[in-house]
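Renewal narrative, Specific Aim 1. Our central claim is that a sequence can be written position by position from structural information alone. The example that follows is taken directly from our test logs and has not been curated for this report. It begins with the structure tokens describing the chain, in the order in which they were read.
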């Protein structure tokens, strides 16, 4: 499923992991946040790391649903794994091509609200891979546990 030289490998069996295929609809953000909180509880993440992970997942899925233009019935694939000193996030969606490495943060949108999600994600994570393959965005993020 994940291809390309800049896409990290799926977690080994030794790493704790969780994943879901979410309908890209209005409920996707809540379902993704539940997955992140459940994963954090399952793996014993400290409260600060659990909160950061939930924010990253909520913000990314919100952006896919709100700005990505997924077609009806489209799915967002989300996988989380706990490695040494890091949580890895693999996200795949069928929305418009979007490479977050090229995004420019222009500040919050005070008129319409929002506009800070990518900056929050960039503050909490590093992008370790992005590719557009098979009509899907495929992103790998790593969130240090500090």
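The sequence written for that structure reads:
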């Amino acid at each position: 499923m994940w291809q390309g030289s800049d896409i990290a490998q799926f977690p080994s069996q030794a790493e704790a992991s969780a994943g879901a295929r979410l309908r890209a609809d209005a409920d996707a953000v809540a379902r993704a946040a539940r997955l992140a909180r459940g994963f954090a509880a399952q793996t014993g993440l400290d409260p600060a790391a659990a909160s950061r992970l939930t924010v990253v997942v909520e913000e990314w899925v919100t952006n896919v649903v709100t700005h990505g233009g997924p077609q009806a019935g489209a799915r967002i694939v989300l996988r989380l794994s706990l490695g040494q000193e890091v949580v890895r996030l693999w996200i795949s969606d069928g929305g418009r091509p979007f490479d977050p490495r090229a995004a420019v943060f222009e500040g919050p949108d005070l008129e319409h609200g929002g506009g800070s999600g990518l900056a929050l994600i960039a503050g909490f994570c590093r992008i370790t891979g992005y590719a557009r393959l098979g009509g899907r965005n495929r992103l790998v993020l790593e969130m240090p546990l500090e």
